[in-house]
Amino acid sequence: MEDVLAYLERHHERDLADLQSFVRIPSVSTDSRHREDVRRAAQWVATRLIDAGVTDAAVNDTDGHPVVTASWTFAEGAPTVLVYGHYDVQPPDPVDRWDSPPFEPTERDGKLFARGVSDDKAPMLIPIRVAEAFLKTRGHLPVNVKFLFEGEEEVGSPHLGDFVRANAERLAADFVLSADGGMWRADIPTLTVSARGLCALEFTVRGPGKDLHSGRHGGALHNPLHAIAQMVASLHDEEGRVAVAHFYDGALAISEAIRADTAALPFHDEAYLADVGASDTFGESGYSTLERQWYRPTLELNGLWGGYIGEGSKTVLPSEAHAKITCRLVPGQDPARIRALIEAHLRAHTPRGVTLSFNKDDHGAAAYRIPDDHVGLTVAREALEIVYDRPPLVVGMGGSIPICDTFRSVLGIDTVFFSFAVGDENIHAPNEFFRLPRFFEGARAWTAYFEGLAKTSPSATSGTVARA
Amino acid sequence: MEDVLAYLERHHERDLADLQSFVRIPSVSTDSRHREDVRRAAQWVATRLIDAGVTDAAVNDTDGHPVVTASWTFAEGAPTVLVYGHYDVQPPDPVDRWDSPPFEPTERDGKLFARGVSDDKAPMLIPIRVAEAFLKTRGHLPVNVKFLFEGEEEVGSPHLGDFVRANAERLAADFVLSADGGMWRADIPTLTVSARGLCALEFTVRGPGKDLHSGRHGGALHNPLHAIAQMVASLHDEEGRVAVAHFYDGALAISEAIRADTAALPFHDEAYLADVGASDTFGESGYSTLERQWYRPTLELNGLWGGYIGEGSKTVLPSEAHAKITCRLVPGQDPARIRALIEAHLRAHTPRGVTLSFNKDDHGAAAYRIPDDHVGLTVAREALEIVYDRPPLVVGMGGSIPICDTFRSVLGIDTVFFSFAVGDENIHAPNEFFRLPRFFEGARAWTAYFEGLAKTSPSATSGTVARA
């Protein structure tokens, strides 16, 4: 009988070609023009699962983009994991900053460049490869595995909660093993134990009912661009601390243990600044850069626009100005309450002569932290040590995995992050890439994970683990 | 011999068709993709002049867009006017706000809708029509007329100064009669005696060297959108007064006479607000709305942008943010100095962690005011009274005619505004239109102007008029 790892090695080239096909599909979930592409990607994933031998794969419709599910649950008495990932991707903008077209995968220096390759297409393909290797060599998996791949992660998973709620029994598991998340660094294996929450809002400031000539009308009316700049500027103090009243109320303080762990990590501001090309760090005083990234809440503008933004000049006093905001939250901050605080702040700071309105299509998710002694973490630690010959470091995540909140509140289970993307792979930015050696390392680690989990006692994973 | 006005009337439909052909040419001078269209418009104007009987019409190359010139100078002993207009237009953005396509002229309710029809294609066609009517009926014009139509008015006429300087002798005249400018209102004839100056700048705030994920990096670095909002907000105080140090130094105060003239005009804030669709007026306290529009300087944002501005959300911490500014100036304010003051202010307000740079392709023009007793004004007053049966009101202009500054400094002559566009015709905005009855009224008025000017004594127009 062929060994699982040998099978994986023998099919490595085929799997790379598969990955290339997958990333060619522009499954941009934020853009309604790509609705059919998103569906095409879902279909691609379901077909890939069936080819792997997970025969009940299905494309499930939702009120948004589809959810792909599949399961193999014949390992009697063994633990059950719910493998999570997402097949949707961020928009490729600004397209002109890409060195190769975002949806034409291009290999350079052992990296594959394409939109979505790191977030999350390559990482989510790995457990499918590994399931296939077990099923085609041994005929069975060491543990029970359910798959759940969504197409709305990049828009905040607005329909996943309803789907999970409606299918709670079918999705029941001991914990979630997430192929989304990303390793902190390329050179050291890490385990992520927290993610920040998210709260998004978009608003419009309206002045005159139509665009006006700024020469003729300038000076007589409030310019929505001036108003929005003042409103946005009021959201932070000069040191970068959020100036919205009560924003920090109840936010979990950073424990001494986490401060010590974080301080011990191999991280230096100078190297970080060189890497991101910034001249200086900036933000809340009293915290290190990593503390601010992982364990402190933020309020960030993601977009700000109004008036004429093309080449040359156009002397317009515009009718409207717009801003997009996302906050990152920590435990103790409720997304809906934070949003309400910001809305109240902006209302109170709306000057005379303009009006304020909010876009209602927004989303939020609470922050997440897995208990230190969770068995899924212990197995992850051992699996990573098998592949990388050293114990992983424990890190936080600045980004958000809103589904952790969903899985905890609906299914009552925790989420273990086990992704082989690396945080520097330009996700959500031009020239996103994935390190191809990780495609095999990840497969080895998922193999070790399934085997390691099979060796734990069922009681340790039966949902009785402590939860924060 | 056919009468001049009868000739005009008989050719009205042909001239309207001509206007439609003219506005179909998208001569957008700010956009390099329309370079050939701008040239096509210049060629169209030259051909139209030749058809009118002004046989020396020529398309003159410059370092930018071409200048069209022509002349008829056989009225010995009569005054000479230099007729000015421009054949370039503003960009049509936002195109989706137009009720009919911007470059497909569409007639509704006696108005012709098209980009550039009011600013300045219909008004500049009128004197060509009138010259033709004189030449084809009487065989000569009552005065000497030179034509100068430029293609860079909407970008601040950057090459017109050099062109006028190099052709000063050829363009010599007693004064300029401008077909650009616009009447204040549709129901009352007005004479414009001042225009504000202009100074433009565009700047970029740069943070990280590339777009970053706002979850991963937010809180660690300064977000260029936050920085630009703070910088822009610092440019005004809360009451709308410009907060740049020394901005108002030397600005000509509004005289008691002008305050009285302006207060006597039929203008009401409520009607104005209803017309432009704004909830309130806003700006420097101590001045009326018209005073702020015509006789006080401003600093207006025309564009502000950065980050993700498409549909949905994208959690990006952008690398750059941008802003476009134009100021309107009054006599006593030097455009270059004002620009330097704003640059210094922005430099002083650039926070840690971001860098500031300025776009160098900017332009400026001093404010303008014609002496009250200029003969060209007197003739204009009489010509308007002939057509409209009432004396015109005296008004200021909020916008800028940078060429006044050029003509005064290079040719030593003043500019009389004599346009039949109206200020409410959505110039620089979607659904620009021109009132078609003005196309004939304007032709009658230009006919009366040329005839009236011929009756003045040569000495009154020979460049000896008082200048401010």
From TrEMBL, chains A, B:
Recorded coiled-coil stretches: none
Transmembrane segment boundaries: none
SUPFAM superfamilies for the chain: Zn-dependent exopeptidases
Biological process annotations from GO: proteolysis
Keywords: Hydrolase, Metal-binding, Protease
Domain of life from the UniProt record: Bacteria
Record-level Gene Ontology MF annotations: metal ion binding; peptidase activity
Cross-referenced InterPro entries: Cyt/Met_Dipeptidase, Peptidase_M20, Peptidase_M20_dimer
Positions of the Peptidase M20 dimerisation domain: 201-353
Keyword Zinc: no
Protein name, entry field: Acetylornithine deacetylase/succinyl-diaminopimelate desuccinylase-like protein
Organism: Deinococcus yavapaiensis KR-236
